[in-house]
Structure formats: structure tokens, C-alpha cells
Design a protein that fits this description.
ten-stranded antiparallel sheet, 1077 residues, Neuraminidase, Beta-galactosidase, Chain A, domain 5, 3 helices, elongated, eight-stranded antiparallel sheet, Jelly Rolls, mainly beta, 76 strands
């Protein structure tokens, strides 16, 4: 720690006005990794290399701030602008004794602000163990016109009698130095220096050296930073970053769906494309789509640039369908399955940049996409030239193999084969920041008084203190307490002391004068290997028993492939001694381990991200000596090293994309499990962990979405709530449609939510536990469960497909007495595989809840020897039959439509009303008509079958029931084509009103329905859930009828009393427990 005595010894004249608020900062500079830069004045900047503990450069001109946190461009790093006065490379310090120079080993200690200046501390050691302490304070000195003055003050201790500390430096060109003044330092004889290399000899105590240079370069050129966070100037800051840098062309991303499509599908967000390139313009043929040419969805984005504002006509040609947007306006809709054909549209363009987006798909055979235009005054269409297009520059164009998910034609609800959308019902979400404060969260910690600390991954590299984060918005305050950190991605408070993990250093932040502002940045540790690569992040931060824990990312090239060669220290988990700063590596084989945290069983885990040697993202156990598979670091040495298995694989784009920090779950039924965030896939995922055969493994489940940003940090607050920190940048570094910042709080509210709690392998199948008992109506047969299995094979390609994917038949289902556990009897589970468990979307709990999420991904490193219980499949129990007139008691309650008897195709046996094709057909009506009624019934449809219940129908000779009555649709949504359209799917008011989602049970299982009519108001219920409610007397409904197939039926839905009709649609169907009241 720097002492006040040292600072007092180096008292200077009042400091000049600094050119920027954050005038001392850490970053990469000029491809040097560990740099400390001070903007002393508009005319003088200095930068120190903390590895050599020496002045690297002094110059006029400032810094070009480039890179992910400055310009959002992935790859570049900051560079100095302007010719240097001093430029040093390599070691510059030694001890001179009796004319002999002895090299010293430098150690950077940190820096401190005092008296308006900056004081930088180093320690030098010799081979004999001697320690010399040096504090240097650089300062700009005003000089005559055309001159720049640099004063360097030193305080030295630890030299022995007869020793001097020798400091050498290089000046850029002979003759730039106009004056030299020394106080307490000596210039050696001229024979020890040349015209461009200079040396001073420094003794114990205070020393000062001043040089005046002939000014070169241009002053300024850097942005001014606000001293405190302020409200944003424009609403665009609420959106994900779009790089302000441009390059020629457009971005093309291609997604392989593996589906036969007839129109452009909606892509499930958070997925990595199969192919991502920059194209010069839009004139694509069959060979321009990358490795997959059929069953693909392609998205083209960028900007179209014009000099003249005006009305432009566009012609979009494609094979198959396509759509063109300019700005937010759909200009051309050329959707559908067809050969190459063009459609036209007109758009008003502003002079300059106009955003453009094209979506297209290709089914079988060849694909093509072409964009033409007519500029104002043109008479013919021409292909839009490459000179008109630009796209954000510097994006990391990450790709990954495998099928991508689309919303498609199936009416799945959120959480069922598609992402969640909302906050988990067992948690209450609240904001933890003022609305104007937009932190891109790199780390979260808590002071002893309960205040939250946040470090930000942004240009400021700041730490903020939030008071009242757990209170109402009016009580929340924010102040910046530190800044100038290099991309901090970890923060920890230990016994009230604040530690931050910067990109290349663990730093303690100290407030010496107790004014609420950090004035000392003490280096705890920084000895591990680094390069200037933009991707060499340090992630953290965790602490236990006097040790800090973090992870070190590898270097990558723009595009996502690993850089070669790698620094050998990369891709490791590092342990740092809090007292000594000594460090060691615990394990290796990581790539982008943006998540470390204590989770299940109190153990420490890491989340690593997909890439080369990582076919999918995964959660890993921190275990001494483990190797987790990334062979890009030391590839020859590691080529035969066995790979340790993960705790869980996170199948890419299904349950993860860019996993982040891990924390333990301590709430309700989930206690003992853990959660982690995801930057790109978003939300939180839940992981159940168990030990099998001495190896940890587990199952991952969806947990929550509905948060304001992709989640980078997840911590448990002192009050037990969960605090999440959001982040986002260009490329795939953020969640689509969400903000690039955020801090929110989740508080457990105790609501019971029906979902899978755990999955565990057995030799003969899978045990699944639920949070609530199953309804007796569902879950008793194999129809409700689906099991698949695959493995991953790491290669040096980016990501990897599922290998040996297979479906495993569920032979039988055993249900426990309390109905909270089922055992799926499955043959063929394999070790070192992932097993996927999908519960049918209609599975319900005893309280009639549908599942919050229906899927689980189970990693089976080991299969235990024990078997699970095998029982006979139980038939589902009927729904509770309400009181009322039970029509299935007697066939006399029915009559054929426009007949005087019940057709032979209809039968009533065992209180089950059934229609069997091949016999006398026809619709079946109730024996009497009904006005207001509440009808309950159960139904079971044949595979691919179609039927319906029509109500308030008027029997007229030669007319069908549906000409007067509305229909409750009965359908096998999975196999019948009508199931692809929600308006004609099961429980729909046929062709007019749709259910929100599909809640039908598997074919062969009984569904429970309810139909309520009161006046003109109708309710359709399915499996105890209200599907729709409509007022048939409303103008809105009448307008829908007027636009439908019923528009020429003047009596349709006009009657409020009539028959209830069970439709013969030619398919087998059964009804039971038909009760009307």
C-alpha cells in the first residue's frame, strides 16, 4: 500500500486540468497487454508497462479507443495516436554498484491518487533477495510555446550504501529533447549513453527529473466522460449495441432447420447460425448458402446507403420465399414455396444510412435471392450494387453445426420445445437500479452495510455503489466509486475489502481517506501469461479460505477460431492467495469460462462456452488436475490427455449458448440445486446434481426468462434474494431483443410451480421427480414421455453436432403412491451420453397446473447398477364428473341429425359414446335443445382424426349443423393438417377463435372438455383450462364471421338455443361422461 509519507515527499505544484474525467486507466495499448495510461494534459499522455514497471511512452495526441467495450468491434484494441517523445521496449531498470550493473526483477504494486496527481509503485528484487521500493509520479509541466514538459518524481528506498538505481529510456528522435533538469539524480558519463538512449542514476530518497520536448502531434481527440452516471441522451441506448464502425457489404447468416417449410418460419432466438459471412450484395445462387443448401432459413442485415433522399422501388426475387424490411417497414412480401419469382415494393429512403433486413427460406432443390431497385428517375430495375451496402464492422462471426429451432407450425407454448418467456411464478421480479442507470454488469458484490457494488464491462471500467437496491425506486441511489479498470469481469467483497478481477490483474480497491471514492488500486496478482488478444478475458470472482478463484479465457481470432499459438497459461482456472498474491493453476482445458461460482453441494463450478474442442457449452466441477478438453492451448502436449467429463452438457441453442455465473439455489423444493445465467440464450437455467460412481453428473432444466437483458452475473444477495446482472454487445454477445445492460432482483414468493425437479438414471431407465403430484388423469402411460439419447465428439471445429442420436422407447411407466415420482422403463441408456426427457405438454398436476417447462437434459457420465421399479401402465382415471344431466346414461338422449334413429355407426357401450367408420354415418344430436348450458364431456380421437361438438344448431332438412351452429373443434393436432392452424385446432371455435396454445393430450388418451353458453357469451375449456371466451353478439365477432367461410350462411351463430351435435367427420371418436346443466 502506498503511504501518505511517500506522497507527501513528492509534493508537486497544482495539477493541470486533465483532458478527460477518467484520466488514469488500464487497457491494452499498442498491442501491449498490461498498460497503465495517464492523460496528464491535452499536450501530454504517458503510458507505463506494468510488466516491466517502466515508462513505455510519452506523447501528444491521445488514444484511439477501439474494441468491444469502446466501439463494439471485436478484435481491435486501443492504440496511441501521435509521435512519441519517449518510446521504450523491454527492461529499463538495473542496480549500479562499483560500475557493475545488476539486473533486477520488477513487480508492479499499483497506483494511487493524492494531491491531484497519480503515484505509481513498483518493487524490484535482486538475485540475492534485496528489495528496492520505487514510487514514481509523472506530471505535465507547462513550457514555452511549442514545448512540452514532463516531470518524473521518484521516491526510492532499499538501496544499500554505494548503490544507485539505473533507469534507462529511449527518446524518439535525437534533438527532440530541448532541456534537462535533474534534482537528486545523476547523468552518467556520455560514454554510457548515446544520442537516443538516456540513463539516470537514482539514489534513496526523493528524486526528480524534468525533460522539455519540442511539441509534436495534435492535442486532444478523446471523449470527455461524465463524472457520474447520468440519464441517457437518447432512447437508442436502451437497445442492443450496433457497431458504429462499418465495412462494405451485408451480413448473411444461414440457419439449417432440417424441416420442410412452406413459408418463412420464426427463428427461436439465442441460436448460433450454421454459416455467417459478409456478402458484397444480394445476388445469391445455390452455392452461396454455406454447407447447407436445403431446409434453411437465411437472414441478411446491414444498411443501404443513398446520397439522395426519395422514393425508391425495390424488386425482391427469391427461390423460395422472402421478405424485405427497410427500417421497421415491410416493403416486399414474397413469401411462400415457389421457384424464383420477383415481387415489388416502394420505400422512402433518407439520405445516408437506411437499415435493411431480408429473411428468406429454401426448401427442396435450388435456392436464390436477388435484390434490384429503381432509383428516383430510373426507368428500369437494376441489381443494387455493392457500393450501396455496409454492415457493422468487426463482428465475431461465430458458427455452429446442427439443426436450429424455429417456432414453426406447431402451437407449442413457451417452455414446451421452445424458450420460456416469463419470470418463474415462484419468484417476484423487481428492478434493482434507477431507471436511468444502465450498467453492463461484469461483477456484483455486497458491502457489509448491504450496499451493492457493480463493476461494469464498458469503456469506463467503473465500480458503482448502489444503495436502496432492495427498496422502492425513490430510495435508490448510485455513485461511481472507481473507474479506469480494464474490462473487469469479477468483483468480490471480503471482510469489507473490495477486490476486482480486471482483464489481466486482480486488484484491491482502497479508499484511504474515507471520502467514499477509491484512491488506491493495489495490484494483488498479475503474473500469469497474457497477450494483447481481445478475447483473453479473466472471469470471476469467487473466494474461500483465503483464496480467490477465477478463470482465464483463451485467445481467438475474429470468427471464433482459436488463435495459434496460445499463451500456455490460458484456458485455466487460477487460485490466488489473498495475502501473498501467489497463484497457481488448478485445472486446464477451458476456452471461454465466463462463469465460476459455488453451487450444488457447496462445490465450485465453471461454465464454459462452445467453440473449437467444445461441441457444446457445459458446466464443470473445479477439481484439482482436471483437464476439460480444449486442446488449442499446448496442442501437442495435450493431444493424448484424457478429457474429464462435465457435470452437465448444455445442448447448444436448446438449453444454452453462452453460459455465465453459477450460484446455489436455497429456495423451496429447489434447495440444494444451482442456477446459472446465459448471455445469449438469456434467463436462468436450473441444474440438479448427483454423484454416481464417484463422478458428479446432473440434469439441466429451464428456469426463468422475462429478464431485461442477457444474464452475465448471478449472485445470492445477503437477504437471500437472487440478483442478476445483464450485459450485451454486438454479434452473438447478447440476447436478441433485450437490453445490453440491467440489474434486477428475484425474491422467492413460495408459489408452487409444476415442473420436473430431478432426473436420475437407473440401469433400466430414468427416475423423474416432480414438484407436485401428477393428476390421476395424466402421466400414467408411455404416451406422455419421450426419451432421446446422443453423445458429443470434441474436434478442432467450432462446436459439434449430436452424434449417434437415437430415440429410446418408453416401455412402461411406474407411478409412485404420492404421484410425485415416475419411473420410465427404458432400455439402452449409455454412459458418456446425454439423455433428453420430454414430458407431453398436456401433463398436469393434481392442482391442474400444466408444466412450467416440459424438457430436461440429463448427462449420464455413469449409469448406476441398480434398477428402478417396473410396473404395469395404469389407465388414466376419468375426470371428476360434475352434477347434472348425464347424457351417456342412455342412447335415448341422442338422435341422428335429420333422422328418426341413431345411425349404426354410433354406439353407446359402458357409458362411452363412440363413432366407428364403415357403418351408417351421420351427425348425432341431443334429443332435446338447450339454451344457456354448461356442458362437460371427455373425448378421445383416433390418430389423425377430426370431429367436433356443434352447439345451438337448428335442424333443417338438407342443412348441416355447422350452417347454424358454431363448433368446438375435436382433433388430433399432431397428425391432422388442421392442427397446423390454431384456428382449426382442437378446442378452437372452428375457423373463428383460436386457443392460445395446444393443450390436447396424446392420441389414445382421454381429454376433458367443457363448453359454456350464456346468452351470446361462449367459453371453450380443455383439460381444465379456459381456451377462449367470446361474445357472439359483439361487433368484433360479427366482423370475423363476415370475413370467414361462414359469410354466406345468414343464420350462422345467430341462435341462442338449439341442439348440441356430435360430428361424424369420418374418423373414429369416443365421448364419455357427457353432462349438461
Amino acid at each position: 500500500m502506498l503511504t501518505s509519507l511517500v506522497a507527501a515527499c513528492l509534493i508537486a505544484a497544482p495539477a493541470p486540468e486533465r483532458p478527460r474525467d477518467i484520466w488514469v486507466f488500464r487497457s491494452v495499448l499498442d498491442q501491449n497487454a498490461r498498460m497503465l495510461t495517464a492523460a496528464l494534459s491535452d499536450d501530454l499522455w504517458v503510458a507505463y508497462d506494468t510488466q516491466t514497471c517502466s515508462l513505455y511512452k510519452a506523447w501528444t495526441g491521445g488514444v484511439k479507443f477501439d474494441g468491444a467495450v469502446y466501439t463494439t468491434v471485436h478484435g481491435p484494441q486501443p492504440t496511441s495516436v501521435g509521435a512519441p517523445y519517449i518510446l521504450n521496449h523491454g527492461e529499463t531498470w538495473s542496480i549500479l554498484e562499483k560500475g557493475v550493473a545488476e539486473p533486477v526483477k520488477p513487480k508492479y504494486l499499483g497506483y494511487r491518487f493524492q494531491n491531484g496527481g497519480v503515484f505509481i509503485s513498483f518493487k524490484f528484487s535482486t538475485g540475492s533477495g534485496q528489495k528496492i521500493s520505487v514510487t514514481e509520479s509523472p506530471e505535465y509541466l507547462p513550457a514555452a510555446a511549442g514545448r512540452v514538459g514532463l516531470r518524473r518524481q521518484f521516491h526510492v528506498s532499499g538501496l544499500k550504501s554505494g548503490q544507485l538505481l539505473s533507469l534507462g529510456w529511449n527518446e524518439s528522435e535525437p534533438g527532440t529533447v530541448l532541456d534537462k533538469v535533474a534534482v537528486g539524480v545523476l547523468f552518467p558519463p556520455a560514454t554510457q549513453s548515446d544520442a537516443a538512449t538516456h540513463t539516470v542514476l537514482i539514489d534513496n530518497g526523493n528524486n526528480e527529473f524534468v525533460e522539455t520536448f519540442a511539441k509534436s502531434g495534435t492535442s486532444g481527440g478523446v471523449r470527455q466522460d461524465p463524472p457520474e452516471p447520468t440519464p441517457p441522451a437518447d432512447a437508442d441506448q436502451d437497445k442492443q449495441d450496433i457497431s458504429k464502425e462499418r465495412e462494405p457489404g451485408l451480413s448473411l447468416r444461414v440457419y439449417y432447420t432440417g424441416l420442410d417449410m412452406s413459408e418463412i418460419p420464426e427463428l427461436i432466438s439465442g441460436q448460433t447460425p450454421n454459416y455467417s459471412v459478409v456478402i458484397p450484395n444480394i445476388n445469391l445462387g445455390n452455392d452461396d448458402w454455406g454447407p447447407n443448401k436445403e431446409q434453411i432459413l437465411a437472414v441478411v442485415t446491414g444498411f443501404i446507403n443513398v446520397k439522395q433522399a426519395g422514393s425508391y422501388e425495390f424488386s425482391l426475387g427469391s427461390d423460395d420465399g422472402s421478405k424485405l424490411w427497410i427500417g421497421d417497414n415491410l416493403i416486399v412480401d414474397n413469401n411462400g414455396l415457389h421457384g424464383k419469382e420477383f415481387k415489388n415494393g416502394r420505400a422512402e429512403l433518407v439520405a445516408g444510412e437506411n437499415s435493411i433486413r431480408i429473411e428468406c427460406f429454401n426448401g427442396p432443390a435450388d435456392g436464390a435471392l436477388e435484390l434490384k431497385w429503381k432509383k428516383p428517375g430510373d426507368t428500369e430495375f437494376t441489381t443494387v450494387p455493392p457500393s450501396a451496402f455496409t454492415t457493422p464492422a468487426g463482428e465475431v462471426r461465430v458458427t455452429a453445426p446442427g439443426k436450429k429451432g424455429v417456432m414453426g407450425v406447431d402451437n407449442y407454448r413457451a417452455g414446451d420445445r421452445r424458450p420460456l418467456e416469463d419470470v418463474h411464478p415462484a419468484y417476484t421480479l423487481s428492478q434493482a437500479r434507477p431507471g436511468w442507470f444502465h450498467p453492463r454488469v461484469g461483477g456484483i458484490g455486497f458491502l457489509p452495510n448491504g450496499d451493492m457494488l457493480i463493476c461494469t464491462w464498458d469503456a469506463d471500467g467503473a465500480v458503482y455503489q448502489l444503495s436502496g437496491w432492495d427498496k422502492s425506486p425513490i430510495n435508490r441511489t448510485v455513485k461511481r466509486i472507481a473507474s479506469g479498470l480494464a474490462e473487469p469481469l469479477g468483483l468480490k467483497v471480503v471482510d469489507g475489502r473490495i477486490y476486482v478481477l480486471q482483464k489481466q490483474e486482480l486488484t484491491e480497491l482502497i479508499d484511504n481517506d474515507k471520502d467514499g471514492q477509491v484512491d488506491e488500486y493495489r495490484c494483488v496478482a498479475n503474473g500469469w501469461g497474457v497477450t494483447a488478444n481481445f478475447h483473453e478475458f479473466a472471469f470471476g470472482l469467487e473466494y474461500k479460505n483465503g483464496k480467490f478463484y477465477g478463470t482465464l479465457a483463451t485467445a481467438i481470432n475474429p470468427g471464433g477460431r482459436s488463435t495459434q499459438p496460445q499463451n500456455p497459461d490460458r484456458g485455466r482456472c487460477i487460485e490466488i492467495d489473498a495475502k501473498t498474491g501467489d497463484y497457481r493453476f488448478i485445472l486446464a482445458g477451458l476456452r471461454t469460462p465466463n462463469g465460476i461460482g459455488f453451487g450444488a453441494k457447496g462445490l465450485l463450478y465453471i461454465a464454459d462456452n462452445q467453440g473449437d474442442w467444445l461441441p457444446s457449452s457445459k458446466i464443470l466441477l473445479v477439481r484439482e488436475g482436471a483437464f476439460y478438453g480444449n486442446r488449442s492451448v499446448e496442442p501437442e502436449a495435450k493431444k493424448d490427455t484424457p478429457e474429464d467429463p462435465p457435470v452437465v452438457w448444455l445442448p447448444q441453442n436448446e438449453i444454452g449458448n453462452s453460459p455465465s455465473q453459477i450460484t446455489a439455489l436455497n429456495d423451496g423444493p429447489y434447495k440444494g440445486q444451482m442456477i446459472h445465467g446465459d448471455v445469449t440464450h438469456g434467463g436462468l437455467k436450473r441444474v440438479y446434481v448427483e454423484e454416481v460412481g464417484g463422478v458428479l453428473q446432473g440434469t439441466v432444466f429451464r428456469f426463468t426468462q422475462g429478464l431485461e437483458a442477457g444474464i452475465n452475473r448471478v449472485v445470492t444477495a445477503p437477504d437471500g434474494s437472487i440478483v442478476v446482472g445483464g450485459i450485451g454487445s454486438t454479434g452473438n454477445w447478447g440476447q436478441t431483443g433485450k437490453q445490453s445492460y440491467g440489474t434486477q432482483r428475484l425474491v422467492y414468493n413460495g408459489t408452487s410451480v409444476f415442473e420436473m425437479l430431478s432426473c436420475s438414471p437407473r440401469r433400466n431407465g430414468i427416475e423423474v421427480k416432480f414438484t407436485e403430484p401428477l393428476s390421476p388423469e395424466t402421466g400414467n402411460t408411455p404416451n406422455y414421455y419421450e426419451v432421446k439419447q446422443w453423445r458429443y465428439v470434441p474436434t478442432n471445429e467450432y462446436g459439434g453436432p449430436k452424434v449417434d442420436e437415437e430415440t429410446l422407447a418408453v416401455k412402461s411407466v411406474w407411478v409412485s403412491e404420492d404421484r410425485k415420482t415416475v419411473f420410465l422403463n427404458v432400455d439402452g441408456l449409455k454412459e458418456a451420453h446425454v439423455a433428453y426427457v420430454h414430458c407431453h405438454h398436456a401433463l398436469q398436476s393434481l392442482s391442474n397446473q400444466f408444466m412450467w417447462s416440459t424438457e430436461a437434459w440429463m448427462t449420464n457420465n455413469k449409469i448406476p447398477a441398480k434398477n428402478g421399479p417396473v410396473g404395469k401402465n395404469r389407465p388414466s382415471s376419468p375426470a371428476q364428473v360434475p352434477a347434472g344431466e348425464r347424457l351417456t346414461n342412455s342412447v335415448a338422449n341422442f338422435m341422428g341429425w335429420n333422422k328418426d334413429h341413431v345411425p349404426s355407426g354410433w354406439s353407446l357401450e359402458g357409458a362411452v359414446l363412440s363413432f366407428t367408420p364403415g357403418k351408417e354415418g351421420g351427425d348425432l344430436r341431443t334429443a332435446k335443445s338447450y339454451g344457456d348450458f354448461d356442458l362437460s364431456f371427455e373425448w378421445k380421437i383416433s390418430e389423425g382424426g377430426n370431429s367436433g361438438v356443434i352447439y345451438h344448431a337448428q335442424e333443417r332438412p338438407g342443412q348441416y349443423p355447422w350452417q347454424t351452429g358454431a363448433e368446438y373443434q375435436i382433433l388430433d393436432n399432431t397428425k391432422h393438417s388442421d392442427g397446423r392452424n390454431p384456428f382449426t385446432s382442437a378446442s378452437a371455435l372452428y375457423a373463428l377463435e383460436r386457443p392460445e396454445y395446444d393443450y390436447t393430450r396424446p392420441v389414445g388418451e382421454w381429454n376433458s372438455s367443457r363448453l359454456v353458453c350464456k346468452g351470446g357469451v361462449v367459453e371453450h375449456w380443455l383439460n381444465h383450462k379456459l381456451m377462449l371466451r367470446v361474445d357472439m353478439d359483439s361487433q368484433e365477432f360479427k366482423d370475423k364471421v363476415a370475413m370467414s367461410k361462414f359469410k354466406d350462411m345468414p343464420e350462422f351463430a345467430k341462435f341462442r338455443e338449439g341442439y348440441i351435435v356430435f360430428q361424424d367427420h369420418g374418423d373414429a371418436v369416443s365421448y364419455r361422461n357427457i353432462v349438461v346443466k
